[in-house]
Structure formats: C-alpha cells, structure tokens
Request: fold
Amino acid sequence: MTEPIVRVFPDRASLGYAAAADIAAQLRERLNYQNSVRMVFAAAPSQQETLDALVAEVGIDWTRVTAFQMDDYIGLPQDAPQRFGQWLRRAVFDRVPFKEVHLMRTDGDPEQRAQEYADLLAAEPIDLVCLGIGVNGHIAFNDPPVADFADPAAVKVVELDDTCRQQQVDDGCFPTFDDVPPTALTLTVPRLLDADQLFCVVPGQAKADAVRRTLNDPIGEACPATALRTHRSCVLYLDQDSAGALD
Reply:
C-alpha cells in the first residue's frame, strides 16, 4: 500500500497554483505518448482556485482531453445553476476546448442514467481524477452510510446524509437545507480508485477533521476518504487551515 503524498501550502491560492501545475504537467506528459486523456472532475467551491489556475496553464492540447463529472443531484432541472454539471461548465468545461465533455444526466430513470454514465466511463481507462474530501469524509457523494469499498457498481443512486446536505448550504450552493436535493448519482469508490492518478484538493478549516481522519483513521467506510490510502498514486493538497488537525 502506498500512502498519499501530502503537500501543505500557506493558503488556498498557493495550493491551487501548485495543484494545477502538477495536473497540467501530468496532462502534458501523457499527451506526449497517448492519443488522448480521460479525466474526472469534482464540482465544489474548494476546487475553484485549482481550476482557475489550470485553465490558465499553457501547452495543454485540450482538444485531446475528454472530461467527466464525478456526481450530480437528482431532481433538479438539467440547466439548474446548482447542478454540478453547470458549475463545472462555468468553472472549466466552457473555458477550454475539450475533445468531449460528458455531462451527467439525472432526468428520467436514475438507475438507467447511472448505467449509461458507467458505460461512458468504461469505454476506455480513466487517467486522472481531480477530487476533494467532504466534511464527513466523503469522496464524490459516497457518504459514510452509503460508501462501499467493494461496490460492484461504477455509478449508483445514493441518498445524501444530513452532514453532506448541510455542507452544500455552508458552501453557498443552496440557501437552506431543505433546498438541497436528498438524492444524487455518484461515481462509486472503486470507480474513482480505478483511475491511474488522483489529485485531491482540500482547502479550508472546515475540512481539518476530515483530513485528520483520512490520514489517521482505520481504512474503512466510516471515513470514505481513507480509501485514498490504498491508491497507488494519490497526492493530497492541503492549506494551513485544512492541515491544522494533523500532528
């Protein structure tokens, strides 16, 4: 088992620049010997500085990069601004010329949509994942009650726990708890870990305990982010606030 590389920076801005530089370097390197790159993006305010810096990087042939999203709400209109697909369009998808962008659909039968997205992901290997960690230790929308490190599915329907829904309010994505949809589609833990390289960006004091648990708790679904410690190539980017509970 290879423990994640942990890098700590003074603030969110320097964290974002460093993470973006590493992601960009990996994209350039892979595009030197691969025809294309397939990558998955998390949607959250914690990712904003990194994505802003990433789209400013030069020398990346985005026309050979295919993008996926990590999760999204069920029950919101496809064009609702709170949807993660729409957030990612504003943050990155509409700012560089991707080869393809696969937005996650959650209209109609959610189970059917989950299988359709799983099929898109399975067409070729996923090279890179840019993710974060929730205040309850979730990765994607794999909250502790629904996370399964041996999940047979690649994408599944989940019920969001109260801590996760409250985080969406605290992040400014919804005005009240009741406005946050209770269900979502998410890539599962095994699907995330099947990618070749993970870049995990986790700024902010609100994430300090989740970071501590990620690195120190027993590996298991009680803190889904502990699964990152089983991955062969994961870098964890922290700022002074999110690293505050570490020894």
